[in-house]
Automatic annotation (TrEMBL):
It comes from Hymenobacter cyanobacteriorum. Residues 16-71 form the DUF2007 domain. This is DUF2007 domain-containing protein. It comes from the Bacteria. Coiled coil: none annotated. InterPro entries: DUF2007, N-reg_PII-like_a/b.
Length: 146
C-alpha cells in the first residue's frame, strides 16, 4: 500500500522547458520533485507523445499542494501567437514578422503553396520530383511571404 512518502506521477509536459518551469516553481515553494524522460524528449522531441512527455514526480503527501501551485499560473504554451508582436510598433530587425498579422512565429523553408517559377518548374519536370522555392511561412495566420 502506498504511503505518504511514496513517489507519484503528477503531470506530463510536451517540452522540457515547460517541465523545468513547473519543477522550478515547486522547488521555490519548498516541494521536492524530479523529472523523468527529460533527456530523451530533449534529444528526440518526436518521441515525446510516445513516451508520455517529460514527467514530473512528487511525494504523495505533496501532490495536492503541487497541483495547486502548477495550476495557479498557467505555463507558457509551446506554440501560439506572439502577443508581443501586436503591441510593438517597431519591427525586430533579427526576427522576421508576418506582413499580414505581425506575428514573429514564422519559419523559412519549402513553400506549401504553389510557388513554382520557371527554373523550379523545369527542374521538377526533369527530375520528376517537385522542387519548390523557399519562403517564410507564418504559423499564426498561414500567410507565405518572401
Amino acid at each position: 500500500m502506498p504511503g505518504p512518502d511514496s513517489i507519484v506521477f503528477l503531470e506530463s509536459f510536451y517540452e522540457p522547458m515547460a517541465a523545468n518551469l513547473a519543477r522550478t516553481r515547486l522547488e521555490a515553494a519548498g516541494i521536492p520533485c524530479f523529472l523523468s524522460n527529460e533527456n530523451l524528449v530533449g534529444l528526440l522531441p518526436l518521441y515525446s507523445p510516445i513516451t508520455g512527455g517529460v514527467r514530473l514526480h512528487v511525494r504523495q503527501s505533496d501532490a495536492e499542494a503541487a497541483l495547486a501551485i502548477i495550476r495557479a499560473e498557467p505555463l507558457p504554451r509551446a506554440t501560439g501567437p506572439d502577443v508581443a508582436s501586436f503591441e510593438a510598433d517597431a519591427p525586430d530587425p533579427v526576427t522576421p514578422r508576418c506582413p499580414r498579422c505581425g506575428s514573429s512565429d514564422v519559419a523559412y523553408g519549402p513553400a506549401t503553396r504553389n510557388t513554382y517559377g520557371f527554373w523550379e518548374s523545369l527542374l521538377s519536370v526533369l527530375l520528376r520530383f517537385p522542387v519548390r522555392g523557399k519562403r517564410f511561412h507564418c504559423f499564426h495566420c498561414g500567410n507565405e511571404f518572401a
